[in-house]
Amino acid sequence: MPDSSLKRLRDEYDAFFPHRAGYKGAEKRSSRVKVNDSLKNLSETELHEKVLSIVNEESALLPEIETDAPLWEGKRVKIQVSKFERNRYARAACIEHHGLTCQCCLNNMGELYGAIADGIIEVHHIKPISEVGIDYQIDPINDLVPLCPNCHRVVHKRNPPYTVEEVQSAFKKI
């Protein structure tokens, strides 16, 4: 089974949900329709138990890794994606207003790591850009927020993304 096959399978099932793009036409594949129909009416508990039974099957377990066997990575795969354009001026205006401090953990990468990380910050769209529509006029101060790479990753750990406030409340000070 190729490494990307589980992601591809998930992307195919995404086509069944209106808020997810998925692969065009995947929702018409009879095998996918049959599986979706058999699972969509299960309760969360029933679905959880079904997944656990599959995961605990012997065939689902990863084989022992041979420590002396080579592990290969870096196979070139050609993909085609559509992306939403970001406005670099909106990013700059957000940073100019809010600064380079993460609005979740309050860390500044330059202060934390020194000159090597000075200026590193990601700009998060409070409302996902995929939901705002075509040619949305963005307000860089109210629609964007600077986040460090770690907090930005945490915010996007679910769909819809966590709010900055949810991540702030979960953040544990060491």
UniProtKB/TrEMBL annotation:
Pfam families, alphabetized: HNH
Gene3D superfamilies on file: 1.10.30.50
UniProt keyword terms in alphabetical order: Endonuclease, Hydrolase, Nuclease
Domain HNH nuclease: 89-153
Gene Ontology molecular-function annotations: endonuclease activity
InterPro entries: HNH (IPR002711), HNH_nuc (IPR003615)
Protein name according to UniProt: HNH endonuclease
Organism: Alkalimarinus alittae
